[in-house]
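Researcher: Next entry in the queue.
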Amino acid sequence: MGREEQIIENRIRKIKELREQGINPYPSKFGFKNHSDEIYAKYKKLPKDKITKDKVSIAGRIIIKRDLGKISFATIQDSRGKIQLLSQEGKTSEKTREFFKRYVDSGDFIGVNGVIAKTKTGELSVLIHKVEILSKAILPLPEKWHGLQDEEEKFRKRYLDILTNPEIKELFIKKSVFWSTIRNFLLEKGFLEVETPVLETSAGGAAATPFKTHHNSLDIDVYLRISMGELWQKKLMVAGYDKTFEIGRQFRNEGIDMEHLQDYTQMEFYWAYADYKDGMKLVQEMYKRVAKAVLGKLKFETHGYKVDLSGKWQEYDYEKTIKKYTGIEIYKSDAHEIRKKLDSLKIEYKESADKWRLVDALWKYCRKKLAGPGFLINQPVEISPLAKRSEKDNRKVEQFQVIIAGTEMGNGYSELNDALDQEERFREQTALKEAGDKESMEHDKGFVEALKYGMPPTCGFGVSERLFAYLVDKPVRECVIFPLVKPEAEGIKKEK
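Model: Structure for this entry, 496 residues:
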């Protein structure tokens, strides 16, 4: 029998013994009153080798436990930190000392009543008077000095990764701050938070490959949304709302890499009577607020780039930027010329891609050369089928993409509210889809009908959790609390 099997067998035996003694190893509640950080804040100046009469009640998980005969030490971890527990002959009752020594193991959740003390070495502690097992752990925790090493195992057992790595725990506290800051910012600006359908009969609002499923009750095929209710929120502009936003999950059946996932959190807002220039001003203010809340600063390094959000945000012209870095004039060059340039730059592309998909591949190459912060503007109408045409050049649209650290960190535009123009663009997208372009948009007749009733001038914008990943300088998958992983193969046990 291996060491882990012995530990498991021993703990199961202890559970049986506790129940035989009439002790429930899994009680329903424990009324604790104190957290570890509060105790440290209040008693950090307590003299060494001092025992107070100040009573505390604390609950959490035992991380480390050492029995040294007349004295036992343990570290208990609660939601806010850790603190030492002390069980000592003459100070803790013999019954409690024996119970603590015999039945409490590393990994157990326990509740402790005791008093504040500081040891001879200056370690602030809770001297145990009474202890209660709240949840008896059967499996041992990963060893402190190496924890979980396999990346997929970390994601599969994320709860252990969070438990053994304080910085991972802090990461998701920061992520909560990230989204709450965005939500509060928009609420302060007078936006109404809404919820739109996750299941749609037509996957609209973006150029992406959707997940498809079947709705049994209605006996129809449906798609998981690929945008945060873009077409729905624009229908709300038709309905008469001035400002709406939604934060939620969306799904794209595409690849996984440092910046992309299949399901992730996105925010989109829609602002009536505003254009893309108004959107740029609002987004710049929002991003500064978010960075300050998450990082406490506006200057940071991420993915090899130095970024200063407090400085002047640049404007990058789509056509001019591509010409600057590749020499290609996108409105004069044909697909053959662009393929030659892509080949010379060793940029991968689909052979079936039309000219504008190839141009977009060129742009993504150029984007890596821009540290930002800035806005990409003047994109071709062919790659932005939902954006309003520019009055200065009808080949282009009134769009802005946030560029930070060589990647896109948000996308917005003056929304197309010309129903006839929108209908024609949907027809062009349908033709591309029939030709094999899986990412082309569906022809959403219901949305076109809504536009025909009239939609006011509107600015729309969306940003995903990729922004958070770049703020904390991590791949986006590491910033998902429970990312999707393949199920562990049946009968195969990973080595510890």
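Model: The two ends are 16 Å apart (CA to CA).
Researcher: Noted, moving on.
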